[in-house]
Amino acid sequence: MIWQVLLFVPFFLLGGVAGQATYSIPEEMSKGSIVGNIAQDLGLDVKRLQSGKARIYTEDKTEYIELNTDRGLLLVKERIDREALCGQSTPCALHLQITLEDPIEFYSVHVEINDINDNMPTFKKEEMKFRISESAVIGAKFVLERAMDLDVGVNGLQSYSLKPTDNFILKLHNQQDGSKKVEMVLQKYLDRETQDHIVLTLTASDGGEPQLSGTMRVEISVLDVNDNAPLFTQETYTVTVMETTPIGTILSTVSAVDADEGSNGKVVYSITNTLDDVPSLFKIEEETGIVSLIGKLDYERTQRYNIHVQASDDGGLTDSCKIIIEVTDTNDNQPSINIMSKSKSVTENSRPGTVFTIINVQDADSGDNGKVECSIDENLPLLIKSTSNKFYSLVTDSDLDREISSEYNITVTCSDKGVPSLSSSVTLTLQISDVNDNPPVFERRSYEAYIAENNAPGLSIITLKAKDADWNQNARVSYILVESSINGVPVSSYVSVATDSGVIHAVRSFDYEQIKDFQFCVKAQDGGSPPLSSNVTVKILIQDQNDNPPQILYPVQTGGSLVAEMVPRSADVGYLVTKVVAVDVDSGQNAWLSYKLQKATDRSLFEVGLQNGEMRTIRQVTDKDAVKQRLTVIVEDNGQPSRSATVIVNVAVADSFPEVLSEFTDLPHNKEYNENLTFYLVLALAVVSFLFITCLVVIISVKIYRWRQSRILYHSNLPVIPYYPPRYSDTLRTGTLPHVYNYEVCRTTDSRKSDNKFGRDGMQNVLIPDPSCTGTMQRIQNPSPGISYTAHSRNPHPYSHCFRYLRCK
Ligand SMILES: *[C@@H]1O[C@H](CO)[C@@H](O)[C@H](O)[C@H]1NC(C)=O
Ligand SMILES: *[C@@H]1O[C@H](CO)[C@@H](O)[C@H](O)[C@H]1NC(C)=O
């Protein structure tokens, strides 16, 4: 039907034109289609056509159209393609000449070929590919390929469209040649992260009816740009850890996402804290975001850490988050004990409740872990008291006694209430200082000691010992002789006590025959203030020694006179002639006497009773026995060694006194002895008188010399230096001597009555030194003016050499 319309319209328009016919046909008509009734249009008869041998002539000899002379029609002979025939030029027409013969005539025929929309717009390529960065700016232009449409006019390319139009719009520019430049312009930012691949369809349409169109794919790859920062999945992470968490423990993992791709999307984590100690305690793994512990946590130092973590991509975009580490307390701190103040010692008489130490206890933990309680051993007389928070005082609880325990080792143990509990302890030593509360106590209730008579003066008799339970000075015992008198003589002239050692020394030689025992008191006194003391009784028993020989009381020994016992010749056996009587002032064995006959004229006649000293006859007296019998009896005591005495007993064996007398009167040697004695006595008297006069002269001259000498000394103003004999100690008190004993031996002219005399207390010597110490020294001895002496010395050296002691008389 379309063809029909196209066919008739030119007819109608071009009818009436003579000599020339114009037709308009659409292209692409099928073969044989009628172009036009030429016979009719040119006013020619069909017969004329046949007769005139009408033909079609074309300049280029193309034969698209043929002439049907039978019907007078122009018919399509070949397919007519306007695009092939004319290309883009318009109008497109075929110019024909129809020639006739007989007569020759010719007619021009124009056959206008009208375009039909038989071509659609086409693109040379099916698709175009672009790589566009997502950072491309709005307005960026991208030239697209143009489409081609062979048709012309409305059938030609009319319009383009690009779909979808989210990011790009199409912009067409008219070119000078009438064609169009096709561009797509970015009108909305690309985002690789939402769409990394965009496919657009460019459609080119013509204006034909029906409209034809061609398409091309435009593929756009969106190139990544680091336009996305990493993004943490959480802004804050909270982790709770124990402070004892070991190093290396993973605490948390943070993660950030970066929408970019490739290196732009690769996230690296780091800790950004700088000021605090977080970097030294925590570590984050760069790639994985694993946060682990690399240091030791301490709740007591920090309870909470804020770790600032940064995530960054390669492009330098970052995000940050915070990890809050909450540290929880564990009982990891022992209580620490500090001694605030401490007295080293308390006196043993301190009242209960005396504070001697204050301690302070700290526990760094918190809560129950930091609550501390302290205690000490229970069996001490001490208490621990909590005074205020964290302070404790140690006090005495009961009476103390240094003598029971002089020091206490106090272990203070403090434990916290954590589970498990931690504790620590400290040991203090408390010294109990001494108070003089114990008197010295003698080891024995009383002392008894024996000393043999005739002892050497200064002999130690016994050692007393008293102990004092106190300490040091309070326990330093001094022994003091308590002043008393024995038979009116001060006890100090009998014994002395060594103050330090308690040794009792005899001051004199004792004589058992004069005193058998005596007792006195010794006081032991300590050095405390005030001192304490105690007494003890010491009894000294003097032991007898065999120092006295037996004394014969009967028969009395007379010098010249002769005594004889008479024994009648008629005496019986066992006749008691006489009894030797002897005594011994010693006692005991020393006074146990035995009698023996030592010598006898006739041993067979007499015997002496061993025990009783009775002299008896042991046989009948005969006439042959001499009248004069001389017997020597020895009396021995039983001492060790024994002492003895002898007595001569004259016995006359006679019946009458004259007989006896005649026997005993003749003793001529006795008279001679008496004469000799008288001579010696006269001689001795003369010698003694001479010596006496000589002495008198010497003494007087010495006295005069001294008197003159002392006058010289008083005129010189020399100081008077008190002199103490060497080894003389001033500590002498109440008869107590130190270790050294000072006594002088004084001898009378009668050596048999030798006696010892001891230096006296308070004896003071005054020494007046010689100005040059080379001459005479004078010493005056007090308080006995009767025994004052002068000494002379040439020795110029020390005092001890400058003068000499002088002895009694
Ligand atoms: C106290 O401790 C000290 C030193 O360890 C020790 O010498 C002393 O004997 C102790 N005292 C007591 C009463 O245990
Ligand atoms: C010791 O003896 C003296 C004198 O005999 C006496 O005064 C004193 O009280 C006694 N002291 C003691 C502690 O017995």
TrEMBL record:
GO biological process: anatomical structure morphogenesis; homophilic cell adhesion via plasma membrane adhesion molecules
Highest taxon above the source species: Eukaryota
Keywords, ordered alphabetically: Calcium, Cell adhesion, Cell membrane, Glycoprotein, Membrane, Repeat, Signal, Transmembrane, Transmembrane helix
Locations listed in the record: Cell membrane
Domain Cadherin: 17-123, 124-232, 233-337, 338-442, 443-552, 567-664
Purpose: Potential calcium-dependent cell-adhesion protein. May be involved in the establishment and maintenance of specific neuronal connections in the brain.
Name of the protein in question: Cadherin domain-containing protein
Organism for this UniProt entry: Cyprinodon variegatus
